Amino acid sequence: MTAICFDHVSKWYPRYQSLSHGIKSSLLHLPETLRSLKRERIRVLEDVSFRIDKGETVGLIGPNGAGKSTTLALMAGVVEAEAGQVVVGSRVSPLLELGAGFHFDLTGSENIILHGVLLGLTRREVFSKMKAIITFSELEASIDQPLRTYSSGMIARLGFAIACHLDPEILLIDEILSVGDFSFQLKCNAKIDEFKRQQVTMVLVSHSMAHVQRLCDRVIWLEKGRIMGEGAPSVILAEYEKSAQLRHGEDRSSAA
Amino acid sequence: MQAPSILATHEPKAAREVNWEHLWDLVVILTQKEIRSRYKNSALGYVWSVANPLLFAIIYYIVFGQIMKVPVENYALFLMAGLLPWHWLANSLSAAPNIFLANATLIKKVRFPRHVLVVSYVLNEGIHFVLSIPVIIGFLLVNGMSPSWSWLTGIPLLLVAEFLIVYGLAVTLASLNLFFRDLERLTALLITVLFFLTPITYSSAMAPAPYRTLLYANPVAALIESWREMFLHGQLSWLWIGSCYLSAVATLLVGSFVYWRMAPKFAEVI
């Protein structure tokens, strides 16, 4: 069964920056502004097609600005594609970066409720999972303290613990797995393996080749908004590294 | 690539339907967050939400009541009865341009109904207003007056009307500000203008005829006058309340239209 399908998806951002220069200048030169809006578009994704099956773990790799985060945003449904069709099959949970959606004056347990509801659970559902979340985060001692007394590792634990208990069918992971101390990382890895066994679909954006190699069944390599390669991690990662080294070499020779 | 046309059937119907329980929980949880975060770091808590309008009331009382001698009975009470509902509106609107911006990381990553952020902010300010109504009762009692039974119908009616008006304006400002960041500064100016165009320090009856029609073009004028008439004299004018709801529908339509057009682009521009 297919969990995520991108069918000839293109995404471009207009240069809204020209508008944010000010209302006055954009209104005074209204026809120009409108014309420039139509002309000055930045293509972020161009004709991207792929499908991800239920239960698969897929890594998105590529240099900065390749369109990885935009792809995740399209999957999460926070932005819309200009062309093509994005079909996402079931309950999607984004794993948030450090502290997003948390409030630092609230306690750990209040933040669990806030975060859980923001991510799509009802309060009743959060309450029923509260104990499990606290136990998983190993933060029993400080759960009634305000979040601003937490270390960044503790906040990451809390975030991961909540995300794990949302019963996601699709989990979007954007560069956050390398947080927490060593023992918590082992716990995260174990949880991800458990998700794999439970047929949770995972999409992972990472610059850590070791992570991608270890976790992913398949890798999609994006560059400048296009798919450069797609397939088994060992094959694609090798190609990607080769191209990155090649570019690095070119840069050096052109600099010399 | 495989033929993706058949895949459209995978899209779950349930996800398209509105989950009312979840929507309600979102509003409750975000409103609680606003209220708690305001009070957690301040020892005086509740005092602050009353102190602000009270301070302005004192200033206006001295300037307009004592120095310029505005011919209004019980001028201090008159000012408070208009200033408290005004502050709900003014506080919400001056914060409005930043409501979405302050939640940028969330809007970029999570799909949830974004207007809930505005709803809970306006509700939070509304709750502070409701909590300050006893101050008006205090002023009434000091002046040898007392609350009227008409408050029982008047307060809910006007609360709903004001909530709708403020929400409609706030969601417009919050959405537009993502695209035109100048709006934040403009809003501060507009609120000051609106303050003087609204019968708060004076009553609309004092305005000369040509200005009075101008006053009625202001969607907030009827609202503030209705609150004050009810607080001071227990009177409800159905004509005024009707025009409050007319303004509510109008601002709500504008706000919903702007939000509906712009919300899909929020995550791109924030």
From TrEMBL, chain A:
**Coiled-coil region(s) at which residues?**
none
Q: What Pfam families does the entry give? A: ABC_tran
Q: Which GO terms describe its molecular function?
A: ATP binding
Asked whether the keyword Transport is assigned, the reply is yes
Top-level taxon of origin: Bacteria
SUPFAM superfamilies per the record?
Answer: P-loop containing nucleoside triphosphate hydrolases (SSF52540)
Instruction: Print the keywords alphabetically.
Output: ATP-binding, Nucleotide-binding, Transport
Instruction: Give the ABC transporter domain ranges.
Output: 28-249
Q: Which InterPro entries match?
A: AAA+_ATPase (IPR003593), ABC_transporter-like_ATP-bd (IPR003439), ABC_transpr_TagH-like (IPR015860), Bact_Polysacc_Export_ATP-bd (IPR050683), P-loop_NTPase (IPR027417)
**Family, per entry:** Belongs to the ABC transporter superfamily.
Entry protein name: O-antigen export system ATP-binding protein RfbB
UniProtKB/TrEMBL annotation, chain B:
Pfam families named in the record: ABC2_membrane
Question: What is the organism field in this record?
Answer: Nitrospira defluvii
Leader sequence residues: none
Tell whether Lipid metabolism is among the UniProt keywords: no
Q: Say if the entry is tagged with keyword Cell inner membrane.
A: yes
User: What family is this?
Assistant: Belongs to the ABC-2 integral membrane protein family.
The gene that this protein is the product of is rfbA
Transmembrane region(s): 43-63, 75-96, 116-142, 154-179, 186-205, 238-260
Membrane-protein topology: Multi-pass membrane protein
Specify the protein name: Transport permease protein
Per UniProt, subcellular location reads as: Cell inner membrane; Cell membrane
Q: Where is the ABC transmembrane type-2 domain?
A: 44-262
Q: Check the record and name the InterPro entries matching this protein.
A: ABC2_TM, ABC2_TM_bact-type, ABC_2_transport
**Keywords, sorted A to Z:** Cell inner membrane, Cell membrane, Membrane, Transmembrane, Transmembrane helix, Transport
